[in-house]
Amino acid sequence: MGGVDSGIFIRHNILGEWAKAMLVKVGVADADAGIVADSLLAANLRGVDTHGVTRMLGVYVKRIEAGVMNPVSRLEIVREKASTALIDCHNSIGQLGARFAMQKTIEKAGKTGAAFVATTHSNHYGAAAYWAMMALEHGLIGFSSVNAPATLAPTGGCQAAFGTNPFAIAVPAGKDIPFVLDMATTLVARGRIVLYAKQNKELQPGWAFDARGIPTTDPQVALKGLLAPMGGYKGYGIAFAVDILSGILTGSNFGKHFPGMLAENLEKPTDVGGVFAAINIESFMESGEFNARMEQAFAEVRGCAKAEGVERIYTPGEIEYTVAKERAQTGIPFPPEIHKEYIELGQRLGVPFPEA
Amino acid sequence: MGGVDSGIFIRHNILGEWAKAMLVKVGVADADAGIVADSLLAANLRGVDTHGVTRMLGVYVKRIEAGVMNPVSRLEIVREKASTALIDCHNSIGQLGARFAMQKTIEKAGKTGAAFVATTHSNHYGAAAYWAMMALEHGLIGFSSVNAPATLAPTGGCQAAFGTNPFAIAVPAGKDIPFVLDMATTLVARGRIVLYAKQNKELQPGWAFDARGIPTTDPQVALKGLLAPMGGYKGYGIAFAVDILSGILTGSNFGKHFPGMLAENLEKPTDVGGVFAAINIESFMESGEFNARMEQAFAEVRGCAKAEGVERIYTPGEIEYTVAKERAQTGIPFPPEIHKEYIELGQRLGVPFPEA
Asked: How far is A346 from chain B (nearest CA, A)?
C-alpha cells in the first residue's frame, strides 16, 4: 500500500468523472476513458495511491500529449489457441489491452478450465490486482503480472536489471471478502519511494540502495539507485520469472531495455508486456464447496494466536477492502502539492479540478 | 539449497540403484520405484539434499512399512477439461501422481497452449523443480507447487497456519542452461533446518522463531516453533496463495490440517495436494526467437556490475546445475550419521547399502 492519510479529500465518483473528462479531452474515446478512469479510481479507493488517479492521470495525460502513448486504442489478436492468445496493443493505454486480455482469459478459462493470455507493445496498466479481480465476478481465480523499468539488481550485482515486476492473484471466498494479493517483487514498490520523495519522508532502512549498491534512506538517492528485492535471491528469482513471462515471451521490452514508462520518458513508447491467467474453480470442485473451504481458511487464519501488540490478523487484500469502504465515504485524499498540480493541469485543459 | 559438502561419497548411479531396490523391497512396482528413485537422486545431484535419497528414501520406506503410504500406485482422473484435470492419487507415493499429472499437463498445453493440472490425496513429491523441469524437454515453460504441514504464521500471528509451500518455475533458454527457480515461501526450507539439527549447526538469525514467536538460532527449538516467511507479509501472501491452489482447490489438506508428511507421522495418510502448469512457448513466439531472447537476458544479467567481493552473478538454477556436474563425478555426499542409519536400514531389508 502506498496510501496517504491526509490532505484534501475529493469524492470518488466526482474524481472519476473528472479523470474520464480529462482523458476524453486529450483524444481518448468516451468508453475507453471510462475504463481507464475506473481502474485508476479503484486503486485510489483501495488505498493504492501509487497506481491511482492521484499519480497516474497526470502521467497518462502528459504521455498522450507528448505523442508517445496512443489515445486511440487498437487491440489486435496476433496469435490464438484454445487457452491462449497474444494481443498486440499497438501502444494503446495499458488498461485497454489489459481489460481486453482479461476478458479473453475469462472466456477461454470458462471453456477449457484454464487460460493464459499475454499483451505486447502496451503501456502501464495500473494496479495488477484490478485485472486479477476481474475474474472474481465470474467465480474464477485470476492472475496478472507485468514487467517494468529496471530498478532491482540480481543477487551479487549492483546494477539494475529488473523492474519491480508486480503480480496479483485474486480468489473468490464465498460470503467472505475475496483473497487479493498484489505485490511488487521488490521489498517496496517504486511508486512508494516516489510518494515518499514528494512528501520528503525518510525511507525505512533496507528498502533501497544508492547507485553503487550502498544502503540509503534518502528517497531522492534511492530513485537514482536500486530497490532491494524481497527475500534476497528469492525476490531476484521471482522478478526474473515475471520478466520472462511478461517481457521475453510476449516480445516486449525486458531486463534493462526500458526507456521508462511514466512521465520521465516523453520520447519513446514504453513497449511493456503483461500476462493474464484464470482458473475455472468448477473444473476442480463445486464452487459451493470451494467457497466453504475458503471461508473456513479465512476464519482459521484470523483466529490464529496473535503476536504481542497485534489487534487482528488480516487476510491478503483485507486492508485494501477496508480502506475502500472508508474512502467511498470520505473521498480520495490528495497531498497539497499534487492537488496544486492537478488544479493547474485541469485549468490548462479546460476541465476544472473538482472542489474539495 | 540444503547441500552438505563433506562426509562419505556414494556414486550417484549406484545410489540410485540401491534406492530403487529398497523401494521394490517394500512393495513398489519396478517401474514406479525407478521413477521415485530418479526424482530423489536428481535432487541429490543438484545439491538439494533435503529432498534427496539421503533424507527421503528412509522416510518413504518407513511410511510404506507403517502402512500409511500406499506402495501400489493408483492414479485416477476424476475431473477433466481441455486444459485441466484433477487426479486422485489414492495415497500413492507423491512422485507417481506428480509425474502422471505433469505428463497430462504437457500433453494438454501442447494442444491448447496452456494447461493446469492438480493432484489430490497424494504424498510428498520430492523437489518441485523436478516436475517443472519435465516441461523443458518438450520446449515448454513448466510450473509446480505443493503445500505442506504448517510451520509459518500469518503476519501478526504467532501460530503456524501455512507450510513452506514451495513452488518452481522452469524455462528453456536455448544453448544456455535452463532457468530453474525452486523456492520455499519461508526464508529457508524446513528440510534445511532438519539438516542443521542433524549436524548440530546453529541457524542464521532471522530464519526461525520458537513456539511463542521469539527469534531463535537453535535448530531443535525452531523445529518445534515457526519459520520466518520471506519478505514478511509478502511471503505470508504467497504461502496462502499456494495453499489455496494446492490444498483448498484440490480437496486436499490445507492450513493447519496436516498430520505430518514425513517420518514424524506414521499413523495417518498425508493427503497433500499439488498443482502443475505448462505454457507452450510456440503459442506466443517462435521458439528460436524465444531462445535467443533468453540467451541475451542471461548474458546481460551475468554481465551486470558486481557488488564488492562478488566473483560472478548466477542465473536461477545455475548453482544447482554446476553442483550436478560436480556430483556426477564425485558422487553424493552422506553425513556420517545418515550413512550409519542407511547401512542399518539396508541390512534390515536385505539390500546392502553400497560401499563408498
From this structure: 38
Using a CB-CB distance cutoff of 8 angstroms, which residues of chain A are in contact with residue B101? none
- Probe site for chain B from A79, A80, A81, A207 (most B CB atoms < 10 A): A81
How many Å lie between the alpha carbon of B200 and the closest alpha carbon of chain A?
Answer: 25
Please state the ipTM of this predicted complex.
0.94
> Do the Cβ atoms of B187 and A141 come within 8 Å?
no
User: Could you tell me if A231 lies within 8 Å of chain B, comparing CB atoms?
Assistant: yes
Asked whether the CA dihedral B325, B135, B276, A121 is positive or negative, the reply is: positive
- Looking at the partner chain, which of B112, B289, B316 has a beta carbon nearest the beta carbon of A81? B112
CA distance B310 to A34: 50
The label of the residue with cell 477433466 reads: B80
A310 contact residues in B (CB cutoff 8 A) = 156-157
Per the CB < 8 Å rule, is A310 touching B115? no
Pinpoint the residues of chain A covered by CATH 1.10.1530.10.
8-65+317-349
Q: What is the pLDDT along chain B (356 residues), one digit of tens a residue?
A: 344 456 799 999 999 999 999 999 999 999 999 999 999 999 999 999 989 999 999 999 999 999 999 999 999 999 999 999 999 999 999 999 999 999 999 999 999 999 999 999 999 999 999 999 999 999 999 999 999 999 899 998 989 999 999 999 999 999 999 999 999 998 887 888 988 998 899 998 888 988 888 889 999 999 988 888 998 899 999 999 999 999 999 999 999 999 888 888 888 999 999 999 999 999 999 999 999 999 999 999 999 999 888 899 999 999 999 999 999 999 999 989 999 999 999 999 999 999 98
Query: Do residues B232 and B243 lie in contact, with contact meaning Cβ atoms separated by under 8 Å?
Result: no
**Binding-face residues of A in 67-86 toward B, CB within 8 A:** 79, 81-84, 86
**Residue A258: HSE in the Cβ half-sphere, 13 Å Cα cutoff:** 30
CATH numeric code, A8-65+317-349: 1.10.1530.10
Burial of B284 (C-beta count, 10 Å sphere; 0-12/13-18/19+): buried
**pLDDT score at A3:** 46
Question: Architecture of domain A76-186+229-283 in CATH?
Answer: 2-Layer Sandwich (3.30)
Rounded CA-CA distance B7/B3 in Å is: 11
Q: What angle do CA A203, A205, A211 make, to 5 degrees?
A: 80
Q: For residue A307, give how far its alpha carbon lies from the nearest alpha carbon of chain B (Å).
A: 5
Domain limits, CATH 3.30.1370.60, in chain A: 76-186+229-283
All three cell numbers of A254, joined, read: 525486458
User: B88: nearest CA in chain A?
Assistant: A284
Q: Cβ contact (<8 Å) for B310 and A157?
A: yes
Chain A residues 112-131 within an 8 A CB cutoff of chain B: 112-116, 118
User: Residue A137: CB partners within 8 Å, gap ≥ 6?
Assistant: none
Decide if B225 touches A, using CB distance below 8 A: no
Nearest to A130 by CA among A19, A64, A41: A41
- What is the C-alpha to C-alpha distance for residues B197 and B220, in angstroms, rounded to an integer? 6
Q: Which residues of A touch B301 (CB under 8 A)?
A: 154, 157, 161, 240, 255
Our measurement of the distance from residue B124's CA atom to the centroid of its chain's CA atoms, rounded to an integer in Å, reads 8
Q: What is the dihedral of CA B323, B324, B326, B331, to 10 degrees?
A: 120
Report the SS3 class of residue A239: helix
What is the DSSP code string of B1-59?
------SEEE-HHHHHHHHHHHHHHTT--HHHHHHHHHHHHHHHHTT-GGGSHHHHHHH
CB contacts of A289 in chain B (<8 Å) are: 251
